[in-house]
Amino acid sequence: SQQGEEDPQALSIQEGENATMNCSYKTSINNLQWYRQNSGRGLVHLILIRSNEREKHSGRLRVTLDTSKKSSSLLITASRAADTASYFCATDPGGYQKVTFGIGTKLQVIP
Amino acid sequence: KAGVTQTPRYLIKTRGQQVTLSCSPISGHRSVSWYQQTPGQGLQFLFEYFSETQRNKGNFPGRFSGRQFSNSRSEMNVSTLELGDSALYLCASSLDRTVSYEQYFGPGTRLTVT
Fold it and tell me: Are strands A43-50 and A100-101 parallel, antiparallel or unpaired?
């Protein structure tokens, strides 16, 4: 079963708007990561947030983590057509335990 | 620095056959993980290797196996292929995933079983 579950599963917005994706997970984590995947190709690492952090920024990306609610959100500001992709959260419990990916949010940015 | 490479990129096999997929990690990376991606199940963890040792294994049948060589290159093998094995197989490398966490993914091998 998936550890992380993204919400919504699909999102369509106009270029310039903000996009928010949410991820919920079930067990304790060491860190949570967000990845992007274009058209069934390899995943690209976007941002990592550790369990003792609440918010992190990278360019137009903002990630929040609420360990009490076991949830994270990814905000993409001022979206561009090139942001069209699937976005996945991945939870890492730490140590030798496996990283688990959510089912992803498919984002479409309309020019 | 060259990225993670996977060969072959596309593969068509028949039920009952076996297949071997290869992954070359980024130079200096010692952790290699394999994932199976399907539309219905998303990304499912297969195995993780570090310095030729399997660190963890996902919930897949014994038909799925893997190994890592001394140069960190990794292979995975699927025997007695089934239609349900059709998927994108992704390999990811990192310096040491338990320390640096971030994984770098290859482009994947698209396996179609007919």
Answer: unpaired
> How do B87-94 and B31-38 pair as beta strands?
antiparallel
pLDDT number for residue B56: 93
Helix (H) or strand (E) holding B5: strand B5-7
For residue A81, the domain's CATH number is: 2.60.40.10
Between residues A34 and B98, the one the model is more confident about: A34
Q: Which residues of A touch B92 (CB under 8 A)?
A: 43
For residue A40, the enclosing domain spans 5-110
Q: Are strands A85-92 and A100-101 parallel, antiparallel or unpaired?
A: antiparallel
Phi, psi of A22 (to 5 degrees): -115, 150
Q: Three-state SS for A82?
A: helix
Q: Give the chain A residue whose CA is nearest to the CA of B98.
A: A95
Question: What is the number of domains present in chain A?
Answer: 1
CA–CA separation, A21 vs A11, rounded Å? 9
For residue A42, give how far its alpha carbon lies from the nearest alpha carbon of chain B (Å). Answer: 4
Cβ atoms of B89 and B108 closer than 8 Å: yes
> Which residues on adjacent β-strands are paired with residue A72?
A23, A65
Quote the CA–CA distance of A42 and A59 in Å, as a whole number. 21
In the predicted model, what is the mean pLDDT of residues A45-51? Answer: 95
Pairing of strands A61-66, A31-37: unpaired
